[in-house]
Design brief:
Blueprint: E1 8-14, E2 27-31, H1 38-46, E3 64-69, E4 73-77, H2 88-102, E5 111-119, H3 126-137, E6 142-147, H4 154-167, E7 173-175, H5 184-195
Parallel strand pairs: 2-4, 2-5, 5-6, 6-7
Antiparallel strand pairs: 1-3, 3-4
Length: 198
Amino acid sequence: MAVNFSATDLKISAGFPAQFPADIRPQIAFSGRSNVGKSSLINTLLGRKALARVSASPGKTVTINFYDVDKKLYFVDLPGYGFAKRSDAERRRFSTLTDGYFVKNDRPDLLRLVVQLVDIRIGPTADDRTMIDFLMQCRIPFLIAASKADKLSKTAIAKAADELSCMYSDIPVIPFSSLNGLGKEPLRSAILAAAGLS
């Protein structure tokens, strides 16, 4: 089934689990630490410049943004984690909201894939490893989008991707750059396959 990625609108910025959309559509979630390039990746996939907003204060926004993609699926932009300046109250709200999405969701079957971003230059941080361990323990399907690949040479990209593949065997690793479009089509294909729309 063809999907027009550019036919996308923000459905809702949910601050509470009760605000999650009730539509029966497949969901693709995007997870990563603040400043890893999550908004830029989403904008690149959608062929839009500023639909997913790049925050001037990374880690400060604690909402889950649901983007309606061509009335066929949702892109679910989870709040960034691992930002030191977040207050204790904001951390608690982050935990409640993300736990609500992953653990207390009425329709966990709608989550078809998590795109877990990792900065290809530095590899998984402690927070990334915690998130990946959670996904693996809960048997939530995910792949790793190794962001900011334009900062490395082709040889360095291949080496870093191999290292990630060795760390997490059987988990797809897709080097990605929002600047030059590297990985855009492979990532779109993986998303459509997971959503049953390919």
